[in-house]
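PT: before anyone asks, these are the final sequences, not the draft ones from last week. 844 residues across everything. Please model them as a single complex and drop the result in this thread when it's through.
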Amino acid sequence: MGETKKVILRVKRQAGPKHAPRWEEFALNWRPAMNVIICLRDIAENPVTRDGKKTTPVTYESNCLEEVCGSCAMLINGKARMACSALVDSLPQPIRLEPLSKFPVVRDLAVDRSFMFESLKRVKAWIPIDGTYDLGEGPRMAPETQEQAYPLSRCISCGNCLEVCPQVNENNAFVGAAIISQVRLFNMHPTGAMHARERLEALMGPGGIADCANAQNCVKACPKEIPLTESIAEMNRQAWKQALLGWLFG
Amino acid sequence: MREPKIIVVGGGLAGLMATIRVAEAGVPVELFSIVPVKRSHSVCAQGGINAAKNTKGEGDSTDKHFDDTIYGGDFLANQPLVKRMCEAAPGIIDLLDRMGVMFNRTTEGLLDYRRFGGTLYHRTAFAGATTGQQLLYALDEQVRRYEADGKVNKFEGWTFLSAVIDDGGICRGICAMDMRSTEVKTFPADAAIFCTGGIGAIFGLSTNSVVCTGSAQSALFQQGVDYANGEFIQVHPTAIPGEDKLRLMSESARGEGGRIWVPRKPGDTRPPNSILESERFYFLEEWYPKYGNLVPRDIATRAIHRVVFQEKLGIHGQAAVYLDLTHIPREVLDRKLEGILEIYEKFLGINPRKEPMKVFPGMHYAMGGVWVNNEDQATNVPGIYAAGECEYQYHGANRLGANSLVSCIFGGGIAGPAAVKYARGLAQGCESTPASAFERERKRQAAMNEALIRQEGGENPIAIWRAMGELMTEHVTVTRYNKNLQQVDAKLRELTDRFRRINLSDHTLWSNQTLNFARELGNMLVLARVITLGALARNESRGAHYKPDFPERDDANWLKTTRANYSNGEIKLTYEPVDTSLIPPRPRRYDVAR
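LR: through. Structure below.
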């Protein structure tokens, strides 16, 4: 009987925000249809490194495990992606796991992405309804508009588009493609469009759309295949139009 | 007038709706959630949300929705509030539409509706096959708006540990842990609304998200909040088996025409597309000609178990059946079901537009939950409210597909204003509760954490969790025998003993996920026993609860709600009558017209 097939995993560990990172290697028993989450659970059940040293379970974020909650984004073999849909058999080994680099590390693979939620506040990413009272039906919408808007509304705030963007760095507060695309979504809605101007103003401020340098990495990194570069182009148009109107009539 | 303060625990659909309604009443809210609320489990709901809008000329009505829900739930739900929910559903759709939910549209620009299980009407509004995600985002956005206004204060990354209950038995706040710093803190409030969702983790593998452990419900139960109908567990007929999770394949796949089948010949090894129509056994269509593939979930799940385990017709002799969409035009699939097709494709590498999917039933939903009154989502402990999947009152013995989203929003929408009314009516608010009451609870919880961190036993929490999950899935889901249930209870006690000797393998105090998991596991073991004992006692078959030794529904003895309470470490079951004042119980049969 041969030795059981192994999965070799290298995990970048970091005990806390101020600790220095270090690497640990694990050898896990291979099974069919394994993903990175299953590997991390195996480690939690038996937290021992490849060379037999006791260690702690790896801290990471996860929730839905079907790529719709946006929790488990990390760098897997250097690529920003979701751990739940990263299937072991499709990854060259050793599989390297690192935290996203554009967000502060909390511990191990868990990072703090509250910047994204704060940005959603900044651009007023909502429909300002009058209240939850019974005010009748919403506005009618052409199926074509819905078909354009729905893909935008599937953004899971994973942060992968920020991770791959060269404009997102310590010297820059660029909100990133996800947020720009959300502005497009809300400006597209008949009620949302009534307040397009204030969203555009926020988007034209510091860290806004002008910081995009058109690297187009975002659209390739999006796990939901959201047409992010299209959104950026459209919002550029809207921003220019607003600036021009402001200049002419302001 | 003093300004009351309300806490909401859980930021899924119910919690966010409760938050919105409280903030709208001008009362400040503190919202606690383990994950950023946008990542809550509601995002996993796929197929849609029910409301009898009758837009297809079928003569649908809220009365018919009400009847389908009660009948589908095998008459175990108290009826008056269910009726109110069905009447409110069309207004809920309007509200969501106004919030900007990208529902699918008809050519006229109206909302489109599709069919779902347990009904003959097109009653389900949908946004592709990610309706839960779209609804959650809409409510998340409204809450963010209130947050930007300073009316909502979010505590994301905090986990609920216990309620602060004063000497008079009134809830005066909560005790929670910051999952990063592991700091344990109490938060005073005049009322707390719990919207803490499902309990899938008790079954090890389920369609639920990682946070759906039932830990909060169990902690409340151990503090004297009653738990009702725990034994009613929904097993969804169509999930993709997996080692980390059972990924749901929405009922909407069948609502849009998907068909379930197995090869007629046992052990047929041919690829599905080469098996002729006449060689396929469409067992749901043959056994239930009227509803076909859209029988309620308990019926479909039992039928699949029968085909696989008794008739030995599982695909390639395995525990799987085909869910076939290959006959549906690709354009329709992409427009209406893309979200779930994408899941199948990503996780299995097979295109379900071209090849039938292999699916099998998986634990999905708890019909039972925290006991609440039949008026305003209040529990038996003053100041504690519950809404959403964590409470018991809307779905009886079996929930119909696409009714959960409506019950979450309806329940949350009631709980919010009810808590405000209660808080405003209090003679003395939480500010007059002595600090010692808070400090006592904080110390008790901190001591539990310290003990877990320090102890050096030989048991691993994940190993115990897996053992519990296997037991529960094997004996306390689709088919139940009293002998096995008794053994499960004995083994759960053994696991509880082992739990006392666990070693966290992580003894640090920063972002220690094992510590939190251990807390949850201790609570899951208690709730697992509530479910098992409820099932053991109920000697009949009703909805999702099926005992071959008692195959019939027994209204004479069991048309009653199980109500579990906890005192001195013992689980006690009592029963109370079901309010069937609006629709008299009748036999539930889906194989013939009603």
